[in-house]
Design goal:
Layout (H helix, E strand, L loop, with lengths): L13 E2 L9 E5 L9 H15 L3 E7 L20 E5 L1
């Protein structure tokens, strides 16, 4: 961590538009998640939808999109409302 930075103040690089879930939130840590185009990111994308259908909000910590060799930003638009995605290097 860089001196003087607080990871809790780092904004999400993506927040799905719409009214977020009002229930508890789950934290998902995964190397693969949209906008990554790997098959593993599709699995987590679908799970995020199932969790949101049950009233949970989702926060995701994943690889920073600037570090991806290939990305598909369309998949971000398919995430449930209020899903917050944070990228790390």
């Amino acid at each position: 961590m860089t001196k003087g930075t607080n990871p809790l103040e780092t904004p999400a690089f993506f927040v799905a538009p719409g009214k977020p879930a009002t229930g508890p939130r789950i934290l998902l840590l995964s190397y693969h998640f949209p906008p990554g185009s790997a098959a593993g990111s599709l699995r987590w994308q679908k799970l995020t939808g199932l969790v949101a259908d049950r009233g949970w909000g989702v926060d995701v910590v994943t690889l920073d999109p600037t570090d991806l060799a290939k990305r598909d930003d369309r998949r971000l638009r398919e995430l449930p409302a209020g899903t917050r995605v944070f990228g790390v290097h």
